[in-house]
Write a structure and sequence with these properties.
There is one protein chain. By secondary structure, the protein is mostly helical. It has one domain. Helix content is about 45%, strand content about 10%. It has three helices and two strands; from the N terminus they run αααββ. The chain has a two-stranded antiparallel sheet with strand order 1-2. Strand 1 and strand 2 form a beta hairpin. Helix 1 packs across helix 2 and helix 2 packs across helix 3. The N and C termini lie close together (about 10 Å).
């Protein structure tokens, strides 16, 4: 897995805790921000970085995008 900074690690752990582990169980940035108790802007920045590192996946939807952790190979 890619090297994660503390915020990214907290976001990934929060996603696992709320069950965002596959496309059917994706969660919004709001859900993730509430779980890890961080400002939404900070969570959004971490989500973009995690997508670029290949740790999570973003699924565009009509309203809010959904995110889930990509299972480790």
């Amino acid at each position: 897995m890619a090297e994660l900074n503390p915020i990214e690690a907290a976001v990934v752990q929060a996603m696992k805790d709320i069950g965002a582990t596959n496309e059917e169980k994706k969660k919004t940035a709001d859900d993730i921000a509430k779980k890890c108790n961080r400002p939404k802007s900070m969570v959004n920045n971490a989500l973009v970085s995690l997508i670029n590192k290949g740790v999570i996946k973003r699924v565009a939807r009509e309203k809010a995008s959904g995110y889930y952790v990509i299972p480790a190979a």
